[in-house]
Amino acid sequence: MARKILSRSDRWFEWSVDAFLVLVLVITLVPMWYVVMVSLLPFGERPSLWLPPWKWSFEAYAQLVGQPSIWRALLNSVILTVGGVFISLSLTVLAAYPLSRRDLPGRGLIVGLILFTFLFNAGLIPTFLVVKDLGLLNTYWAILLNGAISVYNLLVLKTFFQSIPESLEEAARIDGASDFQVLWHVVLPLSKPALLTIGLFYGVANWNNFFEPILFLSDRNLMPLPVVLRDILTGLNVAEYVEGSAAQAAPAEALKMASVVLITLPMLLVYPWLQRHFTKGVLIGSVKE
Amino acid sequence: MRTLGQRLWRYRGLYLMLLPGLLYFLVFRYWPLWNAQIAFRDFQPVLGVWGSPWVGLQHFYDFFNSYYFEQLLRNTLVISVAKIVAGIPPAVLLAIALHETSRRFLSRLVQTVSFLPHFLSWVIVYGILLAVLSPSDGLLNQFLQAFGLEPIPFLTSVQTFQPVVVLSEVWKETGWSAVLFLAALLSINPALYEAAAIDGASRWQQVRYISLPGLTGVLVLVLLLKIGSILDAGFHQIFVLYSLPVYSVGDIIDTWVYRQGILNFQFSLATAVGLFKGAIGLVLIVLANHLARRWTGNSLY
């Protein structure tokens, strides 16, 4: 936009807009920065917003990285995230494609039945009983299967598939391609951005998930990172994760905050990529129909 | 004319694809619906869902007449409404500021940074809150002490727990909610701003008479959808943040259902309460969606 001549009121306007943005920046970043500062705290030092670099102690990190239980939890998190994305994405694609075909008999009824589960939730206990009756308690299947399909993601993907010109699929079918072949060779290659976005949605949800593991798992060795972090933060089992003798080497606050930083790190690494695709994803979701 | 059987046979490939998904919905979404009947029974695990004796509406009566009914409903609604009231203005302001600033770099930076907390698990945010709010050496309490004030145990005090829940949600989600509003602002025809500028409208007037009216559609939609899910006060968040001393102000329907059902084995009572919440939720969301479609032409489903 051409906004060359600035009156005094406009200059003031621009100034307050920028000041507000800087304020948002500060409010978001200061708490995170402080977490990092506390994680570097040596013994005998009070935490502060500015700990001079020559006082930094990486003892807390060294201790955490030396804990086999942390690595175990990381492995669990990776299994749940990767396995979850694979199962969720496959099931969602397989359900979304037929439902995107307007000619499918019974389509309206099936979409209605699925939509109903989105609007009406039977609640926590009846679902828990299903998992229990299936004998899935204390297995990863409980988590992987119970949350396998998000109705929202299913509907977004269905809408996306509907936006692919039918003539393309028609042409493949005339050439004798089966429905599976059409999906695999025509529809999916055209849907890469949508699949990526939905895969990321599932992936972030799985990586951050701590409630289902607490609900369905009882074996401590099966717990993923967020659950372990919660135990460390509430001080429930610090001794279990950080051995007694070693616990003396870094202050408890430093240990807690170092574990916050360590668990946030993987998310930070993929974040630039996430951000780009999520913004698109929000827009895919919001401009449907 | 083909028979129905022949028509369906032609689509066998598609039905086959649908099978795993349908099975999923049947097992994990409709079977729980069947299990929900234990709200009207006195469920005992040995007898099973079907074998447990009927008690009619007993559990609902028990819930409505108990002292925690009012408390749970109040906490749920207060926290939910406060989140809407405190959450929307900063998101709108942020979107407008991102849209109005002439510093591209600042805009990009703020978007990137303000977006980040949305992707963090509530457990991580709990860790950050501990660092900032801890009574001994939390950042905020150090600040209070520097001014000669008493430190406040924010997370465990009845007076401060609800504000902490609301403000931490605002901190985590403002950047994310702003995206929707930003998208709406970007869809406004730039010619409107140019014409207004030529007519001598100040930047503030352009925001007031072009940007804000351009946002009303999305605003109404967001508001209605939030009202539709008003009984969801943030289960995962509160599950992580709350503790015994703040149950009186922090306990919401969902956390109570979890404790009664899973920890105290009151399966039937907890199911009844969950069902109560689900039924109201259904009515609200259908109503909200209906109004959204009527007023904005947009809808959730």
From TrEMBL, chain A:
Entry-linked SUPFAM superfamilies: MetI-like
Localization per Swiss-Prot or TrEMBL: Cell membrane
Domain of life of the native organism: Bacteria
Gene3D superfamilies attached to this UniProt entry: MetI-like (1.10.3720.10)
Principal subcellular localization: membrane
Alphabetical list of PROSITE patterns matching this protein: ABC_TM1 (PS50928)
UniProt family annotation: Belongs to the binding-protein-dependent transport system permease family.
Name of this protein: L-arabinose transport system permease protein AraQ
Organism from which the protein derives: Meiothermus luteus
Source species taxonomy: Bacteria, Thermotogati, Deinococcota, Deinococci, Thermales
Gene from which the chain derives: araQ_3
Automatic annotation (TrEMBL), chain B:
CDD domains: TM_PBP2 (cd06261)
Signal peptide (UniProt feature, chain positions): none
All copies of domain ABC transmembrane type-1, residue ranges: 73-288
Record's keyword terms, sorted: Cell membrane, Membrane, Sugar transport, Transmembrane, Transmembrane helix, Transport
Membrane-traversing stretches: 12-31, 77-97, 109-133, 176-197, 209-231, 269-292
Cellular component terms per the entry's GO annotation: plasma membrane
Compartment(s) of residence: Cell membrane
Pfam families: BPD_transp_1 (PF00528)
Descriptive protein name: Putative multiple-sugar transport system permease YteP
Organism from which the protein derives: Meiothermus luteus
Gene: yteP
